[in-house]
């Protein structure tokens, strides 16, 4: 193999390795299981919310796709609202925060039928010590960030 051809192959191999390494390093996993508290005044569709119980595991790939499940119960003094969804897209800012989106079903807990195919976005921020915040947008309603008070949250 002549030196020019060898140099071209080495450059192509280096670019290929660099691209695959970059994609792998930007892929992350976001998990949480625990209880979080909302600031006073947080509401969803007129229901007062005091906190949430959340459990989710989402893998966000370097290409912006995501796969995983999201489930939370929004806690209030008069009703509990159950949200169950599937993540299909996402992004991250290293291991300090990540955002994922998809669709969900929202059961208002009042006996009426759940709203299905509701757009869902969750922004998760880690404090690096197993805690952090979870901010959820359901349809056009953005809830205040809830602060984890029990359990754990990781972005890695």
Query: Distance between the terminal alpha carbons, to the nearest Å?
Result: 43 Å
Cα radius of gyration in angstroms: 20 Å
Strand line-up of the largest beta sheet: 1-4-5-6-7-8-9-11
The helix content is: 10-25%
The tally of domains stands at 1
Order of helices and strands: HEEEEEEEEEEE
- Strand fraction equals over 45%
Characterize the structure shown:
The chain is α+β, with helices and mostly antiparallel strands and 156 residues long. The protein has one domain (27-155). It has one helix spanning 3-26; strands at residues 28-37, 43-44, 47-48, 51-60, 65-75, 80-93, 97-107, 115-126, 132-138, 141-142, 146-155. It has an 8-stranded antiparallel beta barrel with strand order 1-4-5-6-7-8-9-11. A two-stranded antiparallel sheet has the order 2-3. The model is unreliable at 2-25 (pLDDT under 50).
List the helices and strands and how they pair.
Blueprint: H1 3-26, E1 28-37, E2 43-44, E3 47-48, E4 51-60, E5 65-75, E6 80-93, E7 97-107, E8 115-126, E9 132-138, E10 141-142, E11 146-155
Antiparallel strand pairs: 1-4, 1-11, 2-3, 4-5, 5-6, 6-7, 7-8, 8-9, 9-10, 9-11
Quick structural overview:
With 156 residues, the chain is α+β, with helices and mostly antiparallel strands.
For this entry, give a set of tags.
8-stranded antiparallel beta barrel; alpha+beta; globular; 156 residues; two-stranded antiparallel sheet
């Amino acid at each position: 193999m002549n030196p020019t051809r060898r140099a071209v192959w080495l450059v192509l191999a280096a670019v290929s390795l660099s691209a695959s390494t970059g994609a792998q390093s930007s892929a992350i996993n976001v998990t949480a299981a625990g209880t979080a508290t909302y600031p006073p005044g947080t509401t969803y569709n007129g229901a007062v919310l005091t906190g949430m119980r959340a459990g989710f595991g989402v893998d966000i790939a370097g290409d912006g796709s995501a796969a995983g499940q999201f489930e939370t119960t929004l806690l209030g003094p008069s009703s509990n609202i159950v949200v169950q969804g599937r993540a299909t897209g996402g992004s991250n800012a290293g291991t300090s925060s990540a955002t994922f989106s998809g669709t969900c079903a929202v059961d208002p807990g009042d006996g009426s039928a759940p709203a299905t195919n509701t757009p869902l976005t969750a922004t998760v921020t880690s404090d690096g010590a197993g805690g952090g915040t979870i901010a959820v947008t359901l349809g056009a309603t953005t809830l205040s960030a809830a602060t984890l008070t029990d359990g754990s949250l990781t972005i890695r």
